Amino acid sequence: MSDSLPLRDRYLALIDEIIETTLKGKISSVEQVYQMLLKNITSGTGEVFELVLSDRLNVLQSQVDSEKDELKKAKATRSLRAIKTIQTQWQRWQEQNKATEAIAFAVTQITTASPNERLAAFVRVTDPNQKYPLNLPQLQQLAKSLQQFAQVDTDLQQFSEGITRGLASWQRLQENLLSWMYEQRESLGFGGVPGERGPWASWAKQVNSELPQRLFRTLAMEESAIEFAEQQRGITLKDWVEMALVLQYLQRGLINWFDQQAYDVKAGPKLSISTFLTFAVIWSQLAIGFQSIGAGYSDACSQIMLQILRTFAQRSYFPLYGGIFASFSGSYLRNTLDYLDEPLRTVEGTQEKARILTLLGYSQRALGQYDRSLNFHQQALEIARNAGDRPCEIANLNHLSRTYVQQQNYAEAINYSQRGLILSRQAGDRTGEANALVNLGYSEVMQAQQLENIEPETYESAINYLEQGLKLSEKLGDIPSKALCVSSLGIAYLVIGQHQTAIKYLEDAFKIAQFSGDFYLQGRNLAYLAEAYYHLQNTEKTIYTGSLGMYLLNQIASREWRQPAGLLAILQGQIGAEAFQKLLQQHRPKIIALIGVDGYDYIPQLLEEYQQDM
Fold first, then answer.
1. Rounded distance, CA 62 to CA 57, Å?
2. CA–CA separation, 514 and 526 (whole Å)
């Protein structure tokens, strides 16, 4: 085949040659076909080859379909099989070529960037959200390619060394990525008692490099990642690159594993969600800490945080209606969602941003920051509407309704729930419809109570909406929505004075919230259970549920911990401190089983703190 032929003719000749040699039995394996393609197709001309291949395939298919002569038809059929083999190996060639071109693109982006822009270029080309993200072998090849340029450029040498060290550290950690799980069977999350147990402590023992090891030890002790970053005055580019790769691959490795545990009550999506949030917060805190050091480290950390959130926002289990998850506890939860706010302000309106703002909005509601919650949801509503993300738009109408209930603005709550109901039915969004029904019923119950409306028909109509929402969430198998439905029914029955019915629903709601891992709903259901038991003059259960609810809500920094605390303070005043303590002591084993010894010991301190602030 002559190289002097025009490209189209040359590729047509190549295809015909492969077909002929196959028919003559000179090609006996698909690997030989692939090698011929590899030898004769020039990089960057694949589009021409693909057109020629398609045309030739169509001609042969037409011959097979129309040929009457049996011998000619048989030959055309064998030729068609041969060209389909070429087509398969061409797809393989394309994949290989994409990898080569991706590496070449990454090298060009980094080497042609100005020295102060190179770190940003590196973060961009290693973004997992790219159409063809670089895998581990391709990153190794990138390090080798950069090494070739590094003879005259020390920065490129540092990038190359940082990538090589980062991948080596990750390979050591990968072998024991999940060993910490077998050391703490009772808890699979990132929270727990600081010290020698848990993921960070386990990884600190396995990694050899100094910077990742120090970071892991800091996180194991639940110390500030901001302060850690501020102390890294002598950090080099290769140190930062190594740390970045190790952290990113740890996060991806964990999520890949958790995603495969879809039917595991303790793991599955809620731990994937926890992992996304935990690492996003860590990167955001590192961005704050590196601001004082410069060299572009802070901006690079912020960019990685946004990459993580964008990946998260595209997952099917992104929690448009979920709450604060049990495995996302300790110092990683208390107010750290605030760290995600500032970097998002600089991002353009996208579907992903709308979803992250939704998460921030309902998280701020759980913390009692109602004005901030409304602001986040209003922003998310507008962006989702412009981006055509209907489920996200409906979710924010529902969240706005729920937040207005918390502000006792029941007219607005009803308005947004009605809008959510209409739009969800138009869009066929059944999850959105279930939540809208619950919000509408809940808002109407609370408004009727505020207006002191004692007409039973008013409450019957509102509770009917709640029951419709519950049936729909059960039909969908939507656990977070069901938890909200059952909880709302419990509170509604409490409001209208049907305390036994309220207790039944609230106890069920607490169990469902435990299953889904929603800390906020667990604490809230316990707080309302305490009220129901108090009305029934069941002092013992009032103390048990109220103490647990107060502690759990305080642990996620929700202002609502003061609701059960106030009830317990009244009760303690009625029966005396000594009798109160005896009843609390009776429930010590059950309380410790849920929140540990430290949690039990903290209950009297919390109550005292509330009384001092009164």
1. 9
2. 11
The whole-angstrom distance between residue 16's C-alpha and the CA centroid of its chain comes to: 51
Interatomic CA distance for residues 20 and 572, integer angstroms: 95
Using DSSP, state whether 3 is helix, strand or coil. Answer: coil
Query: Coil, helix or strand for 183?
Result: coil
Q: Which residue has the higher pLDDT, 543 or 332?
A: 543
**Its pTM surpasses 0.85:** no
- Contact status, residue 474 vs residue 489, Cβ threshold 8 Å: no
What SS3 string covers 444-498?
A: HHHHHHHCCCCCHHHHHHHHHHHHHHHHHHHHHCCHHHHHHHHHHHHHHHHHCCC
Task: Give burial (CB, 10 Å; 0-12/13-18/19+) of 391.
Answer: middle
Asked whether the predicted pLDDT for residue 363 surpasses 90, the reply is no
Q: What is the pLDDT of residues 168-193, one digit of tens each?
A: 999 999 988 887 776 654 444 555 44
pLDDT digits (tens, 9 = 90+) for 462-472: 889 999 999 99
Query: What distance in Å separates the CA atoms of residue 138 and residue 101, rounded to the nearest whole number?
Result: 11
Give the whole-angstrom CA distance, residue 57 versus residue 49.
12
Of 114, 127, 534, 100, nearest to 314 by C-alpha is 127
Q: Is the dihedral of CA 120, 125, 129, 130 positive or negative?
A: positive
The helix/strand/coil state of 597 is helix
Alpha carbon distance 354, 501 (integer Å): 38
Cβ atoms within 10 Å of 354's Cβ, excluding its own: 24
What one-character-per-residue DSSP string does 348-370 give?
A: ---HHHHHHHHHHHHHHHHTT-H
Distances (CA, A) of 155 to 114, 137, 292, 431, 552: 11, 22, 21, 51, 49
CA distances to 2, 295, 428, 437 from 292, rounded to whole Å, are 63, 10, 50, 50
DSSP state of 607: H
Report the alpha-carbon distance of residue 73 to residue 55 in Å, rounded. Answer: 19
Residue 236 burial class via C-beta count within 10 angstroms: exposed 0-12, middle 13-18, buried 19 and up: middle
